[in-house]
């Protein structure tokens, strides 16, 4: 038995308008049709016939979406820099701003062949992406969550990528090695911002990877800056993804911790999003132990 793609599309997307704006509901419905039947926009225009099989799966997808599950959890994957990554409720769903972070690292280090540490690696998208696009000799992903690291390891296997993983609470410990690049997209959303967050994010992405105390929004940035003399080789670089409201504060923090050429980069929406800095060739803090 055959059904027609445009009919299914037009029956499905209105069911999502209670949670999503119309255009977003249509986009999400297209993703589901592509996942289940490899339907393209052209196929919809031509009203391509598709087999009835998978209709029950589509109905299940819609029910999950209506219950508040994000589409990436429903499908079981998200796209990042053109590649598909497994995601679940133990890790953040990859976002455009983090793609911009990775793109900046690659652009500023075209002939890079050193070592990289990603702090708060989550699903592993940053180290896996950089391993595929640089000549880094070794890349390490660090996270406090064993469940997140399980997701990262699965993604590394899926992409046949060699990354070293460390489970560690960076607020209490730190690795013994030094690195040429230190990258982090740490928790930076204030707890008070929960009230304005979309329902599909709140309660679905892990709080551990999102929120910081309202009275200490720079908690992770301060700790990583404090550790930078121990973690970075001379002339090593730091790349932070940051909260749009705290660019000036992060810049001041980095300068206070002996980092040079500190720069705040704006994202595609014109918001402060990435902070970068370079370790001085010979910091007076080298060798200091915390």
How would you summarize what this structure contains?
The protein is built from eleven helices and 13 strands. The chain has 290 residues and is of the alpha/beta class.
Mean pLDDT across all amino acids? 90
Radius of gyration: 21 Å
Q: pLDDT under 50 segments (min length 5)? A: none
Structural class: alpha/beta
Helix tally equals 11
Percentage of residues assigned to helices? 25-40%
Number of strands: 13
**What is the string of SSEs from the N terminus onward?**
EHHHEHHEEHEHEHEEEHEHEHEE
Distance between the termini: 68 Å
In the sheet with the most strands, the strands line up as 7-6-5-8-11-13-12
Biggest β-sheet description:
7 strands, mixed
Strand content: 15-25%
Shape: elongated
Describe the structure.
- This protein is of the alpha/beta class.
- Helices cover 37% and strands 22% of the residues.
- It has a seven-stranded mixed β-sheet, sandwiched between helices. Strands 1-2 form a two-stranded antiparallel ribbon. Strands 3-4 form a two-stranded antiparallel ribbon.
- Helix 8 (146-158) links the parallel strand 6 and strand 7.
Key terms for this structure?
11 helices, alpha/beta, 7-stranded mixed β-sheet, two-stranded antiparallel sheet, 290 residues, 13 strands
SSE order and pairing:
Elements: E1 2-4, H1 5-12, H2 22-37, H3 41-45, E2 49-51, H4 55-66, H5 71-75, E3 77-80, E4 83-86, H6 96-108, E5 115-119, H7 125-133, E6 138-143, H8 146-158, E7 164-167, E8 179-184, E9 189-190, H9 207-210, E10 211-212, H10 219-231, E11 232-241, H11 247-256, E12 259-266, E13 272-279
Parallel strand pairs: 5-6, 5-8, 6-7, 8-11, 9-10
Antiparallel strand pairs: 1-2, 3-4, 11-13, 12-13
Helix pairs in contact: 6-7
